[in-house]
């Protein structure tokens, strides 16, 4: 008999971070995630996850709204439906539910995890199969303290965990940000890749003032320097050709991807499965970038292990991720909810070999961190 979805459950988990994570939009002391568990009539369970940054500081969804909307709208829509047709389920969801990209991503990841587990194959197999068994992973330096960031970067290099670093900037005066970036780049040397993420923290004129000094310092990439709606400004900054410009917050779905590509608003796309609205939509964005000769980067919403692995399975199917990934979210947390921690070594993340996501939840940890 065809398997059907019999239950959808959600839980909000709060896990402290190893240090404050400072961005232009928020400072995070813990990460809150929504764990989605979908059970099917043949005894399979798939898991998915959604996170946000600072509640509603980053976007229009919060952990509380994600849980409420999945419980009230998604679950009744898909319970009783065939569990082995993820694309059909996505069509059904999109017809009834607008926006809610993060919630859609969590539900879709759980559906694909269950499908892959049923077939006994890794989740990546459902998207053509992995081209790579491991992916490079950048580390974000965001303590806000220059000396601490340098010490943290050196620790990562010594442990062979990361050799690519992204700096969160945009909260301080331009000259202070420039001194901070220059000190870190000088301390790490020419062979270490340093990029910056402004999270829309600058005006276009501020970005214009900063690009040449950043290039002189040796910064390789500037992520979302100005407001996501200022596409003309993004195009002007990209056309200068001083430092590659990467679109992030401006890239929320297929329509955004097409508009950015058509108007040459970025050199690089940061692909985030949650921001894109799920694995299928992220794959569409990858295709748009490839067709437009726009370079790719595997982005993160600072997810925990579940969503990080879902994204990693998709990214592993891409032949060229020119700028690597930043799938470091689980490493920012003090604890994990998996029985076996993910393998970060030799500057990469290794993909698990088992079916689906390839991991097992630690039920005691899930109970411990679930919000009461």
Automatic annotation (TrEMBL):
Pfam families linked: MR_MLE_C (PF13378), MR_MLE_N (PF02746)
For whether the record's keyword set contains Transferase, the answer is no
What Gene3D superfamilies does the entry give?
A: Enolase-like C-terminal domain (3.20.20.120), Enolase-like, N-terminal domain (3.30.390.10)
Q: Name one GO molecular function term.
A: racemase and epimerase activity
Cite the InterPro entries for this sequence. Chloromuconate_cycloisomerase, Enolase-like_C_sf, Enolase-like_N, Enolase_C-like, Mandel_Rmase/mucon_lact_enz_CS, Mandelate_racemase_C, Mandelate_racemase_N_dom
Q: At the top level of its lineage, which domain of life is listed?
A: Bacteria
**Which residue intervals define the domain Mandelate racemase/muconate lactonizing enzyme C-terminal in the entry?**
147-244
- Asked whether the keyword Metal-binding is assigned, the reply is yes
Active-site positions on this chain: 168, 326
Q: Which CDD domains match?
A: MLE
Q: In which pathway does it act?
A: Aromatic compound metabolism
Q: Give the record's keywords alphabetically.
A: Aromatic hydrocarbons catabolism, Isomerase, Manganese, Metal-binding
The alphabetized list of GO BP terms reads: amino acid catabolic process; peptide metabolic process
The protein's required cofactors: Mn(2+)
Similarity annotation: Belongs to the mandelate racemase/muconate lactonizing enzyme family.
The record ties this protein, via PANTHER family, to: O-SUCCINYLBENZOATE SYNTHASE, O-SUCCINYLBENZOATE SYNTHASE-RELATED
Question: What name appears for this protein in its UniProt entry?
Answer: Muconate cycloisomerase
Species of the source: Pollutimonas subterranea
Organismal lineage: Bacteria, Pseudomonadati, Pseudomonadota, Betaproteobacteria, Burkholderiales
